[in-house]
Every structure is written in structure tokens, then in C-alpha cells.
């Protein structure tokens, strides 16, 4: 058989400008470090149509300017009803089990005016005053968790620290009685354990959907209990579920499904994002000794400025939310030069946008003093993360306390051995083994 050599006499060599082959998406290797693939997409296919592991076809938006535009574009609806009938994998979007559990009416799935009404009601729980008042409880939880492993000299920071802290905090905020909070911890653990590589969750045994069903049953019973004993006037520190039961907007009371869905999404969105902020943030600091030392020295000097800018940088550098939650085109539109058809799903890749060199200097470098940092880690526009102030408080408290109480904390595993959880939206480690000098 005749074979033509790569560079026959008189033919030019491969042009240097030829694009490298497109990277594989949603593999285990991609999950461990998606940033090279995102750099390729930003340069060569910034708005890229792909088939997700679930079979759904969607557009990935990877450049900062396009991402910011898409996050605030009213033509991109949050409501899955707009997912086109002819689309592959229709119904495989959102959180597994939420539809069958009647938990669809929450802030991640609705548009104005319902979104405006419900967000206004629940935003009272996240005012700066309420969050500041919650700070001592977050510190108390943080210290108690570290007390549980400090004397051992080793720990898994995900399961013993980053995971339980936001679970107990959000349970307190919602008004879940202390005696029931370990049940919530178990159900939340089911959500984390049963995510598939690159998938939306569910796992081989439908763990996410099972957990959602258990949480729904519990919330229905808790709402009934609280409604029966609700006092005529609210206390200043009234828990969020009681406030939602009480809330009415122009005389219209929330339905039980709306109350349950709101409580559910605050739990679901409020714990895993913070688990990953603490986990990813600690991991980044342990792998960047100069930045970790900078933060520790500033904390020792009583200076909180590096901690404040540092949390924002950790959110940008390796944030807890890799892709923003689903959006669906309600009319044909152009984004990044690509024509998006009515009903097409659009996923904004926050992790790619936040490392766009067109917006951030040295985007692949962790710089805790970075001040020009309008990252998209908590979104942008009307769906900007409602719980961001609480998540920031938890992140700052967790990192500052950990680095102060266990100053020589270090990784106890080769980074190559660490595994990242599968899942389309969130980005986080399965485990983070550490060692340190045992502390009393």
C-alpha cells in the first residue's frame, strides 16, 4: 500500500498554528484538572455544543465576557419547562428526584415574577445583620469540629470538617432541631457519595434521588409541626422555615410545596458549595506554600485583609461551582458568535470564565492579595447566590481557625492520589487527608 510520509519532499511541515486536538471532556482525568481543557475551549470553541454524560446536548460557555452576558440574559430561562421537546435527554436536567418529590418551585428553577417574590421573602435570612449575628455560632461549630481531631495529628478534612460545618450551620439557620441534624447529615452524605463521573448525580443506586425523597418527607412533617406552634409575632431571630411559613406577599401565603422547595434548595445549594469552598481552598493553600505562609503571618499579626481578599481569590482560582446551573433559551439568540436555538440548554462554565486571561492577570496563579477580582464564583445577575454572605463567613472562619490552631498542617497524600467527585455542577474533593502536630 502506498504511504505518503508526513512531510514529503517539497511539502511544508505541519503548520505551527494548527490547533491541537480537542480535549476529552467529563473523563476522570478531566475531573482531576479541567483547566487545560477549558483553556483550549476558550481559545478554539468558546461557546461549544457537546453531549453530556447524561445524554443531554448543551452549550458550554467558557469566556468571561460571554459568561457574564449569559448569566444576566433574560432570554435564558431557569425553568426546565423551556427545555425543547426534541432535545436529547429531556427531563435529565436539574437535581435528581426533585420533580417526583414536588420540590421544583425553588429559586434555581424559576424566573420573574415568581423568582422576585420568593427571593424577596427568603433574602431576609441572609441580610448582613443576620449573617453577622450568626458568626459566633459558626465559630463555635468550627472549633468543636477541630476539637474532634486535633489531638490525633491526622484527619480527613472533607468528612470531618468541610462537610459537617455547613450542614450544621444551614440546619440551625433553617430551624432543624438539633436532635434531627445528624439525619440531615446522613442524607446530605448520600448526595455527595452517589455522584457519577461527569453526571448530574444519582449514582448506581439513585442515591441523590433517595436522599431528596427522605428530605422532602422530613420537611413536610417539620413544616406541619412548626405551623402548629407558630407564635402570632415573629421573634427577632426566628428561624427561616418559620419565617417562610409566616411569610405572605400581598396577602398570598406560600404553599407548603414552595416552603419545602425553598428549604430544600437552601440546604442543597447551601452546603455542598461551602464544603467545596473549604476543601478546595485548603487544598490550594497546602499546594501553594508562599500564599499559605502569607495568610498565616497576616492572621498572626491580627490583619484580616489577606483573609478577605484571599477567600475571593480561592473562589476564583478553584471555586466550588464549576458550571452554573441550567439555563434554557426562550428565543433564538447569538452568544459568542454561535446561534442558540429555542429550547437549547446553556451551561456557563464559571471555572473557565474565572481563569480567562482576557479578564484576569496571570489567571492560573493563586494570588491572595488580588484586588481586581470580579469573579463569577457565585454567579451574576438576578440569580446571584443568595447565601454567598454566609458561605464567605463559613469559609473565612474555617480557614482562619484551621491555619491558626494547626499551623503546620500538610497534605498526607500525593496529589495524584486524590479523587474529585463526579458531577456536572459542583467541583470538590472526595477526601483531603492531612497531618499536623497533635494539638491539645
Instruction: Give me the strand/helix succession.
Output: HHEEHEHHEHHHHHEEHHHEEEEHHEE
Percent of residues in beta strands: 5-15%
Helix content: 40-55%
Provide the CATH topology. Answer: Cytochrome p450
**Poorly predicted sequence stretches spanning 5 or more consecutive residues:** 1-16, 195-205
Question: What's the story with the biggest beta sheet?
Answer: 5 strands, mixed
Class by alpha and beta content: alpha+beta
Q: What would CATH call the class?
A: Mainly Alpha
The tally of helices reads 15
Count of separate structural domains: 1
**What order do the strands of the largest sheet run in, or round the barrel if closed?**
1-2-10-7-3
Overall body shape: globular
User: Under the CATH scheme, which architecture would be assigned?
Assistant: Orthogonal Bundle
- What's the mean pLDDT score? 86
- Radius of gyration over C-alpha positions, nearest whole angstrom: 23 Å
Straight-line distance between termini: 76 Å
Write the SSE topology.
Blueprint lengths: L27 H5 L2 H10 L2 E5 L5 E5 L2 H8 L4 E2 L36 H9 L5 H20 L6 E3 H6 L1 H11 L6 H13 L13 H22 L11 H7 L1 E2 L2 E2 L2 H31 L2 H12 L4 H13 L9 E3 L3 E3 L2 E3 L4 E4 L1 H4 L34 H18 L4 E2 L21 E3 L5
Parallel strand pairs: 2-10
Antiparallel strand pairs: 1-2, 3-7, 4-12, 5-6, 7-10, 8-9, 11-12
Give a structural overview.
By secondary structure, this protein is of the alpha+beta class. The chain has one domain: Cytochrome P450 (Cytochrome p450), CATH 1.10.630. A five-stranded mixed beta sheet has the order 1-2-10-7-3. It has a three-stranded antiparallel beta sheet with strand order 4-12-11. Strand 5 and strand 6 form a beta hairpin. Helix 5 packs parallel to helix 15. It is globular. The N terminus is likely disordered.
